[in-house]
Amino acid sequence: MSVRVADLMRGRLQNNAVKFMPGTRDGLMVNGGGFQGKTETACDAAASFEDLWRDVHRQLLPGQTPGTRDLFVPVAYCRLPVRAAPKALCKTILDVYGDPHPNTLDDLIRAVRDAIRDHNTTALLIDDVTRLRLHREDDQDTLDLIRELMDLNVTLVLIGVDIPRSGLLRSAYVDPRTKQWVFPEVKQGRSHNDAASTQTERRFDLVDLDPFDYSTPAGITAFLDHLAGIEDQLRLFRSFEGMLTTGAMPEYLFRRTRGIVGLLRRLIEDGCTEAITNGEEQLTPELLARTSIHLGDLADLDPDAGEIPEIPQNVRPPQEKKTSRKKPRNTVFDDHGERPAADG
Ligand SMILES: Nc1ncnc2c1ncn2[C@@H]1O[C@H](COP(=O)(O)OP(=O)(O)O)[C@@H](O)[C@H]1O
Ligand SMILES: [Mg+2]
Hints:
By secondary structure, the chain is an alpha/beta fold. It contains nine helices and seven strands. The protein has two domains: 2-208, P-loop containing nucleotide triphosphate hydrolases (Rossmann fold, 3-Layer(aba) Sandwich); 217-305, no CATH class. It is elongated. Mean pLDDT is 84; it is low at 194-198. Magnesium ion binds next to α2. Residues 2, 32, 34-40, 261-262, 265, 307 line the site of adenosine-5'-diphosphate (ADP).
């Protein structure tokens, strides 16, 4: 899942970056539940785009000057503050560049536009965008502002939990031909950007980052691959090959975490701490059954926006070796011997 999202995002950033015509760039929205790795996946894709883009520009860029700020900022990432208002969003974006905050909203917006242009930003990532409570007047203004940011020749990537039900897509419709979400132009008068009224509509792709799926062979393979990757990185003295990927372990891990990558990570980390402390030095379903999942510091998450996933409770560990889930051997081609020669 995350590979698909990352590939799509990298492709979109690269394609848009080499468009030099004026006009809006198709944006991207990454949708998924809390702790499913949205931030990590998007930042990873953005970072690899930034590497590539800096490489392309190496000959043109001024060298680094200690004590000064970066002039060239191809990728800007920011998180929407809880209870975001347009001013707060502008300030968060300006903080990426370390620019000062003007006082009035109009000046802030102008400063954001100038900063994005002057720093040659081609990708603007706004994380946790579903923190907007769209019934408030401020939020509607923020939303209009976000849409207008698309007119700045920047690829806008919006990341959030349950975007379709957040009100963010209000007034947008799906183009049946391209399956993209289309925002009609902002009504004149409300717009912060005079040019916006002459722009055509803004288009977004909405991609879902789902948890692992344990109901299809492809889903199980992906989950097992992920577990194998984790197992490779664990350094427990008594770990063994297939510690996480064989027997009842994969299914148990799936039931404990519902396939949510962040919960799985916490469970394994806490399990390892326990295994090291008590000297067992390996992960077993029994040990994990004693480990509860702690999400750690939640201060920077917004439960109201669904950023904290529900953790499955009271998941029974698999029964001891009672059920061998091995498939019986296929006996169709067995030679049972001593068959009479063909009749007649
Ligand atoms: N592909 C991955 N492999 C391993 N761990 C991951 C992966 N993606 C995310 N994580 C971990 O999952 C946790 C939650 O990820 P995060 O990106 O913050 O989720 P979200 O933004 O969807 O709430 C983090 O601890 C992160 O390191
Ligand atoms: Mg996040």
